[in-house]
Amino acid sequence: MTKPLELVASQFIRNYGINVPEESIKRCEDSLIGYINGEIDYQNCHSVLIDHIKSDDPLVQIKAILSVGNSPLPSYSSNAIKFTRNGRKIVKSWSKIEDNRLLFAIHKFGLNNWQKIAEFVGNNRSKTQCSQRWFRVLDPRIKKGPWTEEEESLLIHLVQRYGLKSWKQIAEHMEQRTDTQCRYHYNLLPENRKVQFKSEEQESPSEEQPLTPLPESLTNLNPSVISQFLDIQFPQNSEFFDFETSFTV
């Protein structure tokens, strides 16, 4: 499985490799990933990138991520926290150094230890903020181009199914779209494209239909006549045979 920082490196290469043959792109990706894993030194990687994409910027960016150091950014005082008029906390925008520390921490600890990642980043960043920053912004697999008609149709269908408060669940079914993207784009859709919401989960299951009673004309038949058609063996003393009870399933 490709590591997160390797995905980031590939994205850096492709951002600078527009109109470059795929073979050259692949050569640069392999070199930069080799540098990340200590298999290629800086100078050799630099030469490959200059030869194929005429820029060493992807290498410079990766080196900056790998060189952040182990000391977390200092935490700011609680007095520095600002709030809106209605009392909501104002979240500080992420800086480039914070992003670099986050990417290196993910490279170091993986995607399942957000508490350690948050402690490594510092600057009072919480594990929730760190995970959301990766999954909603930095993950190179996020699709950021225009929405297709097929995507919009699927989005509308998923909103009908899960409702307007289940964006994470909806995003799980949308290829390379985040929960934030789904919510924002749905709100931008014209009303004539939306279908009135009715959750499938809220639909009450249809009640089980009662068994239809046997027609009176059938129950009045002589059991010996019925047995010829249904191949049923009746008791010899058919006088006490309860026909309707015997056919109840």
TrEMBL record:
Query: By its UniProt entry, which InterPro entries does this protein fall under?
Result: Homeodomain-like_sf, Myb-like_DNA-bd, Myb_dom, SANT/Myb, SANT_dom
Q: Does the keyword Transcription regulation apply?
A: yes
Q: Name one GO biological process term.
A: regulation of DNA-templated transcription
Q: What PANTHER family does the record point to?
A: SNRNA-ACTIVATING PROTEIN COMPLEX SUBUNIT 4
- List, alphabetically, the GO terms of the cellular component aspect: nucleus
**Biological classification of the source:** Eukaryota, Metamonada, Parabasalia, Trichomonadida, Trichomonadidae
- For the HTH myb-type domain, which residue ranges apply? 93-138, 139-194
The name of this protein is: Myb-like DNA-binding domain containing protein
| Compositionally biased residues, Low complexity | 207-217
Domain Myb-like: where?
93-138, 139-190
- Locate the SANT domain: which residues? 89-130, 142-194
Query: Matching Gene3D superfamilies, A to Z?
Result: Homeodomain-like
Which Gene Ontology MF annotations are present? DNA-binding transcription factor activity, RNA polymerase II-specific; RNA polymerase II cis-regulatory region sequence-specific DNA binding
